[in-house]
């Protein structure tokens, strides 16, 4: 049970106001003094759309005084029946407001279109499906070879505008039927293997899956006059030193060649480390810390940059909307 002692609000004109019997005691700058005076044990953060930097500052100040911090979902999440107050997670602390995001341009790009997403049950592909739904597409064909992955996505989203298609895009006949049936205007090609050490030991399958799939999908996009083809690539394609990076670099070159010969606009978007994505190093780091084990890094002086999945996909949609064919977009990963 909670016993609220007061509100804190950055609007200084609200100081002293009483809301539902609870007084506004000051601004965020007064947290320390209020906490001492009122013997505060827990702070609940309910600032809509708070960015990661401000949240990190608040959490640090509270923890220095032994105060527990928890967070309430945004108003939009409350409308989605997410009523639970929860502990602050790493993704909350890393959140940033996307810069130069042109929602109107993305809306124009997606609205009323037939969208096809390969690798739709994966972490990136599923977020592309979620975000495209916000912009009122005509239909989204969510394609994946993982039966359970598609089932889970369908359980989460449902939605009459999404068609859940089970199949392997390495099979040309399947892809041809897929294109005839759904006639996409836009293809987001997110299907790929990306576990770097594993692909070092399975080179032929890495080539067959990553390069082979991209070649088949690119041929199909050209054949069926798809307006826009977006390849999800990686920063490991820059001077590649791994099999995964090399396959992705070849995929980039492949679609750039297609772009010169096709009416379809082919673009690629390079990702860095995406927090929470399948294969992300962060869960491994957290498990090592939790287990009291050393954190395994490639080099003590290495600098890592991370981005949240939803932030990354917002920028993918932006890049796709402004792309005119042939570009390789690189996401600004922000501060390390």
| CATH architecture descriptor text of the largest domain | 3-Layer(aba) Sandwich
Multimeric state: single chain
Can you count the helices? 13
Please tell me how large the radius of gyration is. Answer: 23 Å
Q: Class by helix and strand content?
A: alpha/beta
Percent of residues in helical segments?
40-55%
CATH class of the largest domain: Alpha Beta
Largest sheet, described in full? 7 strands, parallel
CATH H-level superfamily title of the largest domain: NAD(P)-binding Rossmann-like Domain
The number of strands is: 15
Q: Name the helix and strand elements from N-terminus to C-terminus, one letter apiece.
A: EEEHEHEHEHHEHEHEHEHHEHEEHEHE
CATH topology of the largest domain: Rossmann fold
Report the portion of residues in β strands: 15-25%
Strand order of the largest sheet: 9-8-7-10-11-12-15
Low-confidence stretches: 75-82
What is the overall shape? elongated
Structure report:
- The chain is of the alpha/beta class and 336 residues long.
- The protein has 2 domains: 7-94, NAD(P)-binding Rossmann-like Domain (Rossmann fold, 3-Layer(aba) Sandwich), CATH 3.40.50.720; 103-330, Rossmann fold, CATH 3.40.50.720.
- It contains 13 helices and 15 strands.
- A 7-stranded parallel sheet has the order 9-8-7-10-11-12-15, with helices on both faces.
- Helix 6 (123-133) crosses helix 13, helix 8 (172-182) packs parallel to helix 10 and helix 10 (203-223) runs parallel beside helix 11 (243-261).
- The longest helix is centred in the middle third of the chain and has 21 residues, at 203-223.
- The radius of gyration is 23 Å and the shape is elongated.
- The two termini are 39 Å apart.
- Mean pLDDT is 85; it is low at 75-82.
């Amino acid at each position: 049970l909670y016993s609220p002692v007061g509100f804190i609000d950055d609007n200084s004109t609200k100081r002293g106001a009483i809301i539902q019997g609870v007084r506004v005691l000051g601004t965020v700058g007064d947290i320390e003094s209020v906490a001492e005076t009122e013997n505060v044990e827990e702070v609940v953060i309910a600032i809509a759309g708070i960015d990661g930097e401000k949240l990190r500052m608040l959490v640090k100040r509270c923890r220095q005084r032994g105060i527990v911090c928890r967070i309430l979902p945004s108003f939009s999440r409350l409308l989605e029946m997410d009523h639970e107050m929860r502990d602050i997670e790493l993704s909350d602390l890393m959140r940033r407001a996307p810069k130069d995001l042109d929602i109107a341009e993305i809306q124009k790009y997606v609205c009323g279109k037939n969208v096809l997403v390969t690798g739709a049950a994966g972490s990136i592909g599923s977020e592309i499906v979620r975000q495209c739904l916000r912009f009122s597409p005509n239909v989204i064909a969510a394609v994946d070879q993982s039966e359970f992955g598609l089932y889970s996505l369908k359980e989460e989203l449902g939605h009459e505008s999404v068609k859940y298609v089970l199949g392997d895009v390495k099979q040309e006949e399947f892809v041809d039927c897929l294109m005839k049936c759904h006639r996409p205007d836009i293809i987001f090609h997110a299907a790929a293997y990306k576990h770097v050490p594993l692909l070092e030991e399975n080179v032929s399958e890495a080539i067959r899956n990553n390069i082979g799939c991209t070649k088949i999908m690119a041929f199909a996009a050209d054949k069926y006059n798809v307006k826009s083809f977006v390849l999800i690539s990686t920063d490991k394609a820059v001077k590649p030193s791994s099999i995964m990076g090399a396959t992705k670099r070849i995929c980039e070159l492949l679609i750039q060649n297609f772009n010169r010969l096709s009416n379809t606009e082919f673009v690629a978007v390079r990702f860095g480390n995406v927090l929470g994505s399948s294969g992300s190093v962060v869960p491994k780091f957290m498990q090592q810390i939790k287990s009291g084990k050393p954190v395994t890094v490639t080099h003590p002086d290495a600098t890592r940059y991370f981005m949240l999945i939803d932030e990354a996909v917002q920028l993918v949609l932006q890049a796709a909307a402004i792309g005119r064919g042939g570009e390789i977009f690189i996401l600004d990963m922000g501060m390390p």
